[in-house]
Amino acid sequence: MPEFETYVDVDPSDFVSVCSKTEIEELIECLAEDGYLKPTYYNVPEDKQSLLDKIWGETLDKLSNNRLMLTTEEEEIITKIANRL
Question: How many whole angstroms separate alpha carbon 83 and alpha carbon 55?
């Protein structure tokens, strides 16, 4: 029986752009399981996050997006808190 070989070159962004929300969540889960993503609240599907997780995630996003607006003292406090964990 003859054997056929196929090669399809798909750009990752093209692949992701045609995935459904569920498929993207599965992809994120696979990447986290394989060690490509550090475990964070982003890896948890929204429907499985508690209200406190959602609030904490929003707080971290705000903090990250406004990093340049922090004073040196505020940065030092945040760094100190992060380093004690």
Answer: 22
DSSP state letter for 16: H
Mean of pLDDT over the chain: 87
The letter for the amino acid at 9 is D
Per-residue pLDDT, 41: 64
Q: Is 39 left (phi over 0), alpha (psi -120 to 50) or beta?
A: beta
Domain parsing of the chain, residue ranges: 1-46, 50-85
CA dihedral 15, 17, 20, 26 (to 10 degrees): 50
Query: Whole-prediction pTM value?
Result: 0.50
Neighbours of 69 (CB within 10 A): 8
d(CA 6, CA 46): 38
